[in-house]
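Hi support team,

I submitted a single chain yesterday and got back a structure, but I'm not sure I'm reading the token output correctly. Could someone confirm the output below corresponds to the sequence I sent? I've pasted both exactly as they appear in my results page.

Thanks,
R.
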Amino acid sequence: MNGGFEEADDEGKPFGWRKYGGELGRSSVVSREGQYAAAFTSRTTSTKWVFQTVTVRGGQAYVLSGYALKDDVNVEAAYLRVSWYASPDGSGRAIDIVDSTTSLADDSSHFRFLTTDPVLAPVEAASAKVRLMLDPVSESKGEVYFDDISFVETTMPPPTQTPVPSPPPKETATPPEPAQTAPSSTPGESQGAAPPAVKPAPPSEEPQPPPTPTASRPSSTLVGAAGTDSEAILSNSDGHSQGDANADSRPARTPVVLYRERKGAQSVQGGQNLAGAREEGDGLSPVALALTAATPAALGVAAAFFVWRRWQHRARPP
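Hi R., thanks for writing in. Yes, this is the structure output for that exact sequence:
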């Protein structure tokens, strides 16, 4: 391979290397390691290269690397290239071409590293040409330097798995917050106080009419005062009792109190018009007269009162 260009042929040129255009020599003034480096000069506008033919195995991985120094404005670029051939001697048309990952386009007084990275030789490849490339700017003289060139068999690194982008998370719709209304309260008023609860009005109750009084017949027997048995029967003025069957057909008369007083074995009966009782001096009070115009129940009370007053009148000593 003679990648350090330390060996030279009879003409003093790097051993094992050939050129396509330009001028090839060795330089002991400019070198990276050792005593020499390859010096390549261009005086035309065409692309030129230094090359060497090597044997390869198809399908195997190889890597071409080395150092170059470009510090000449008349050189447009310096880089490395591998050309694959199906023939064992590199004759015929190239199957494929691979260039270094970088190309020296700017100028520097230092050697810089160039490489193709590991590459697979085509399956049908039997040979390869290792080339040191120079692109001139013009017909003016331009010169570059190469050193420590290597072309070796290697292994391909495991393929880098490209991460599958995960789908973006779905956005969940958030219900908008209710708008907050500023309280319209004057200073001094309590803010946020809840309005007083309004109690529903109770259902209106319709007034019920008062019950109609039902007339009832007074009892025919009344108990007198002071333990004296007395019976009083309300009768019409014609002497018939109210229980008579024909009483309803007769005209209304002034009520008469029939009374019976029992004292020992004696019994006194008599009838007296209530309206004329006061004139005869029986002592009937105005209250008793008022009760005569009241309800039947009041008439019973008036009769009892009259009997009692009658008894008081008769029992009074002369």
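A quick pointer for reading it: The chain has two domains: 18-154, 221-315. Let us know if anything else looks off.

Best,
Support desk
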